[in-house]
From TrEMBL, chain A:
The chain crosses the membrane at residues 56-80, 92-120, 132-155, 237-259. Its main location: membrane. SUPFAM superfamilies: MetI-like. It is a multi-pass membrane protein. InterPro entries: Bact_Polyamine_Transport (IPR051789), MetI-like (IPR000515), MetI-like_sf (IPR035906). This is ABC transporter permease. Residues 54-255 form the ABC transmembrane type-1 domain. It comes from the Bacteria. It holds the Pfam family BPD_transp_1. Keywords: Cell membrane, Membrane, Transmembrane, Transmembrane helix, Transport. GO terms for cellular component: plasma membrane. It is found in: Cell membrane.
TrEMBL record, chain B:
Its main location: membrane. Residues 64-268 form the ABC transmembrane type-1 domain. Keywords: Cell membrane, Membrane, Transmembrane, Transmembrane helix, Transport. It is found in: Cell membrane. This is ABC transporter permease.
Amino acid sequence: MRLYALAVYAFLYLPIGIIALFSFSAGRSASSMQGFSLQWYGRALNNPFVMEALWTSVRVAFLSALLATLVGTMAALALTGMRGRMRATFDLLVQIAVMIPGIVIGIATLIALVSVFGLVNPWLEAATGWKLSLGAGSLIGAHGLFTMSLVVLLVRGRMETLDPALIEASNDLGATPFGTFRQVTLPQILPAILAGFLLAFTFSFDDFIIAFFVAGAETTLPIYVFSSIRRGVTPEINAIGTMVMAASLTVLIVAQLLLRRSQAQQRR
Amino acid sequence: MAMTQFRARALLLTPAGLWYAALLLLPLAVVLIFSFGERSAIGGYAPGFTLEQYANLPARFAAFRNTMTLAPLGTVASLLIAYPLAYFLAVRVSPKWKTMLLVLVIVPFWTSILIRSYAWIFLLGGKGIPALLAQIGLDDVRLLNTPFAVLVGIVYGYLPLMVFPIYVALEKLDKRLLEAAADLGTPPWRAFLQITLPLSMPGVLTGSMLVFILLMGEFLIPAILGGGKVFFVGNALVDLFLQSRNWAFGSAVAVALVVIMLITVALYTRAVKRFGASRDDVGLM
């Protein structure tokens, strides 16, 4: 039993370990280890295409996560304790957004936006000289749609465990609804909101399939890595991969710690 | 008071509602409409009302066949590998190590699937496992760009998602039931079949459904490890929308994929209900 578990852990970590190991190779071959050097990290960090893709990814991930967290939290606050048709509609929307495969969301967003832009652009261009096109904006919108749904699930889950007596007490003591929210509700749901933000950021940062369809002329880091793999593997990609894994891991560990803290509060 | 509360709620829900309307409902409606349309001469979409695209679906039969064989196969393979590990973590490991070992299972899941799949190019390619096999006399074993490679990628990618719900189900299992069975002289294998396995069914069903749904829309793993020879519906969709730009037919393929998925989920949900599972078992988020 113990041996079996060990074998499964080896299976889980061997591929990741190999990428990290090869990224420190001094040779030109991507699939073997020849000496030790950090040159591929230097190469990756000095490659303008890599840096531009990284900057696009970070920008899109940050803005989509910010919007998703804000809008998702607002929706979660409204939905808590709500009954009736409105609640059922939103529950259904959240479920659809989470369940429809990313690839279908990607193509649907692509053809819908291209069609809408096709209708609007001639008119818009005549009036303002501007044209709408796919790019960072559509990426933020499509990523945010999915991650907003995650935020709704997370924050609503936390809201439903809050003690209503605290809110009633605050109201009875004469606090305004906004005052109660700021001083009683918000501090208790803050860890869930932050965890939602970090999960949203990581999702957007790691996503390939939705971005592949709606990024337009923009290149995100996963799109860059995918097209590089298509051309052949290089140690530079190993270095980029290792850095990306390290970065997402850091963010996720923070998210997990926050969630754990929020759950610990829940038990108290 | 009731009125202001209603207005506050409506105000809070408006941005999310608009977002869902513009980027979920509208796009899905467009796909549905396009699937009844025609391909225009320059690619893209031309309005129409025809069932031609759906009649044409058998042209992509291979993609559907691969998806509908490798997705269930991958789900079962993940289940068979995940179950013993989940059992080990839930029943055998001392509480001191439990959390850490569990986190170690989930960590790879939260790193980029693109990079994790790409790692297998090294392991399955000429200089990897085939080279090792050649040393023990098995020459010319091709692994990369085969269904096996895609299956390995699938199990590797989705194993954590399977371990977690099964672990949760096994963790809840009352150990006294097993002690009672042992006291009454039940051999361990029968206790496992009659107590442990049935009680862990909710986790098994939840995990299988999650993995299966995600596999149905998979693109990256076949694209990276299947080398164009083993392709899923996802790969057909990328081809139809980004290369041959046949939007009408592509939309029909997408609608067919979602419909097959919904039917499967509906059947599954019925099975899950019968076993009394709850969706709360999914604690990965």
